[in-house]
Write a structure and sequence with these properties.
Elements (H helix, E strand, L loop, with lengths): L18 H9 L3 E3 L17 E8 L5 E9 L7 H17 L2 H9 L3
Length: about 110
């Protein structure tokens, strides 16, 4: 389920294992996709998106809880250095966010 985001309206729900975001979460690894149009099962939420970098996020218990997804209208825009920097940022987020409360808020629970 889509949580906080910046940019054009996007897909609200993506299943684990589907598209670039769902695949990164299912594999539990960062994906750097040079040309999203060539990614099998790519979900084109924004038709201008050409390259993506997706970093999975995990709770303190190691359970997957979301992704950090960046898109670019330029093919090949992201590289491994970008991914490594964002993985560091993702690890910082994982330590600082109360994921149980965040997930409950997304689900509409008190």
């Amino acid at each position: 389920m889509l949580g906080p985001f910046q940019g054009k309206p996007a897909c609200v729900r993506i299943r684990v294992g589907q598209g670039v975001c769902g695949t990164a979460l299912a594999r539990r690894e960062t994906l750097v996709v040079e040309d999203a149009r060539r990614f099998p099962g790519h979900i084109a939420c924004d038709p201008a998106s050409r390259s993506e970098r997706v970093v999975p996020l995990f709770t303190g218990d190691g359970e997957p809880c979301g992704v950090l997804d960046l898109d670019s209208p330029v093919a090949g825009w992201f590289d491994r250095t970008d991914a490594e920097g964002l993985e560091g940022f993702a690890r910082l987020l994982e330590r600082r966010v109360d994921w149980a409360a965040a997930l409950a808020a997304l689900r509409g629970s008190p």
